[in-house]
Each structure stands twice: as structure tokens, then as C-alpha cells.
């Protein structure tokens, strides 16, 4: 589980990663529901899940920590998550330049072929470069 800051408060959990992608889980909690008549996670925590997974995917790809800022994060919701379901965010960093990194991903509640949302984003390096460290 991620322990600090907003991610820690949300209870985000690490699931898996590859050379250019990261997968995190947002566990269902009653205080995170968005609709009182349904027990589904609100959109805000799902956006936070995808934003954090984006940063981790970038750092995984470039193999170093560089301070970054979210320039653009577009989330297109396809459907609500299932009642009482955790949401999984899987994000890949598919391109990086000297000053920017580009990501795409999905949020799903157990079936990646039936996503809750699709996302795309662009992140900017702060006082540094978003470049791969050879090795």
C-alpha cells in the first residue's frame, strides 16, 4: 500500500508493473462513494488513482525519480464501477521527450476488456528532464 499523502489516505495499493507501465488498485470504501443510492466509487478518487499510476509509470520507464506536474489528464468514463467493487488503474508511459511524458491507460473493476474509464495524459518535468537513464 502507498503510505503517504493523498495516495495513502485513499489506500491505493501497488499491484504490478513492467518496463513502462504500472498497475494500482483503489479499494472500495464507503466514504469514497459518489452516489448515495448506489455503492460505487466516485470519479474523483478514480482520477487520483490514474494520476498516481501515471507518475509511477513515467518514473518506471525513465528509471529515476524526477519531479513532474500534470499538464493534461483526460478521463473518459464508459460506465460506473460495480457496487462495492475496487477499481484497478493500469497506465503506460508510451512516449517521453526531454521535457514531457505521455501516458494512456484504463480503470476497470475486474475486467480490463470492460473498462470503467479510458485516460490519456501529458506530464511535464520540473527542473529536470524526463529522459530514460541507460543501464
UniProtKB/TrEMBL annotation:
InterPro entries recorded: HotDog_dom_sf (IPR029069), Thioestr_dom (IPR006683)
GO molecular function: thiolester hydrolase activity
SUPFAM superfamilies in UniProt: Thioesterase/thiol ester dehydrase-isomerase
A Pfam entry, by short name: 4HBT
Domain Thioesterase: 46-113
Protein name: Phenylacetic acid degradation protein
Native organism: Parapontixanthobacter aurantiacus
Upper taxonomic lineage: Bacteria, Pseudomonadati, Pseudomonadota, Alphaproteobacteria, Sphingomonadales
Amino acid at each position: 500500500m502507498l503510505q503517504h499523502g493523498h495516495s495513502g489516505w485513499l489506500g491505493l495499493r501497488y499491484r504490478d508493473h513492467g518496463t513502462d507501465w504500472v498497475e494500482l488498485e483503489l479499494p472500495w470504501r464507503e466514504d469514497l462513494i459518489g452516489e448515495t443510492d448506489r455503492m460505487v466509487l466516485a470519479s474523483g478518487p478514480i482520477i487520483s488513482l490514474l494520476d498516481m499510476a501515471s507518475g509511477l509509470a513515467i518514473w518506471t520507464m525513465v528509471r529515476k525519480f524526477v519531479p513532474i506536474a500534470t499538464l493534461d489528464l483526460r478521463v473518459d468514463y464508459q460506465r460506473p464501477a460495480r457496487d462495492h467493487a475496487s477499481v484497478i488503474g493500469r497506465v503506460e508511459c508510451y512516449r517521453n521527450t526531454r521535457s514531457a511524458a505521455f501516458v494512456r491507460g484504463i480503470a476497470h473493476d475486474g475486467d480490463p476488456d470492460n473498462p470503467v474509464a479510458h485516460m490519456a495524459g501529458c506530464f511535464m518535468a520540473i527542473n529536470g528532464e524526463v529522459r530514460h537513464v541507460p543501464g
